[in-house]
Amino acid sequence: MDYLLTEEQLMLKDMVSKYAAEKIAPVASENERNHRYPAEIINELSELGMLGIYFPDEYGGSGMDFVSYTIAIEEISRHCASTGVIISAHTSLVCDPIFRFGTEEQKQKYLPDLLSGNKIGSFTLTEAGAGSDAGATQTTAKLVDDKWVLNGAKLFATNGKEAETFVLLASTDLSQKTRGISAFIVEKDTPGLSIGKLEKKLGIRCSSTAEIILEDVTIPKENMLGELNKGFKVAMVTLDGGRLGIASQALGIAKASIEDAVKYAKERIQFGRPIADLQAIQWMIADMKTEDDAAKLLVWSAATMKDKGLVYSTESAIAKLKASEVASFCANKCVQIHGGYGYTEDFNAERYLRDAKITEIYEGTSEVQRLVIARAMLK
Ligand SMILES: Cc1cc2nc3c(=O)[nH]c(=O)nc-3n(C[C@H](O)[C@H](O)[C@H](O)COP(=O)(O)OP(=O)(O)OC[C@H]3O[C@@H](n4cnc5c(N)ncnc54)[C@H](O)[C@@H]3O)c2cc1C
User: Fold this and answer.
1) Chain segment 172-190, per-residue pLDDT in tens
2) CB of 24 within 8 A of CB of 17?
3) Last residue of a domain, which of 186, 207, 229?
């Protein structure tokens, strides 16, 4: 499949792949077991320009394309899916909307610190009563003395604990539901903003998932991102790109599952020969590889559409739906091929299975992706 990549993309793939194998792989399981945020790795990846891969040099980005970004997230997630989502949420869900919808002043103020990794970003759309139904947002933003005053609670914010810059969605007109939502840039040290519950999760345990509490959080009027009451569009456009970040994370988990399954199948002896000689095992590996290749083509195709400036919302939903279900399929088969050992912490297979599941849920569940695809087909 690499024949589809340019020389520059191949060089990036090689660089990230070597870094991840050398620096991320040895510590991934232990970090995950200890719910430890991989600060040192994030710092090193920042130095390598991996926190602003596809943004222009003028704001401190690495000036590469979006396909390169998907490759980097896959290679990183191949060893640690938590690190993959930390970077993906930061890049796709915070840097991207500020770059796309921000005023020149906002871009100059926020992007250099975010793209260099000096500051981490977190995107907060979800609330207790507003998950798939994001229009049910109850957090409010009211204009008081020419400043926005935010009240409410956001849930499940990836990077919420570490972030210094939030892109936050709040209702500026509750009666209008999706048409009354606006987006804001909120800085962590603003009085009234606090971190609430930190979720204990099935997987991706190195990344924080936090509640963000807002009590009379007062921010300058100019911190609105995009237009008044057009925040739902900001969120949806942002999630189009974000879904490809998650799809790439899923590709990384699938790749890891295939590589580990192949290795184990060649090493494990039963009935006097490697289990790789058994057709039952061979077919599982063949199915994993076939599904993974199909998913990768969908992800790279949608990413290429984004690079070309084409409308890619449906293709992004298709790629995310397929890649996330392939990640779960491959991780499940990986555990199966490892037999009882796959169910223990002695091997990475169980981590892949736990990590894969979330890719079917966040940034729109598989059901929501099907809804998006079906709506496009039936309109
Ligand atoms: C680890 C983690 C990290 C996250 N990170 C972030 C983040 O950084 N920022 C953020 O804003 N959010 C984040 N989320 C939230 C995530 O995007 C939501 O959990 C997800 O969108 C689903 O919403 P929900 O949990 O409320 O489920 P619900 O919307 O309550 O869904 C429950 C079930 O009903 C189904 N369902 C709901 N509506 C429909 C429908 N119309 N048609 C068919 N089926 C439907 C769903 O598919 C699901 O199976 C994160 C969540 C987790 C667990």
Assistant:
1) 999 999 999 999 999 999 9
2) no
3) 229
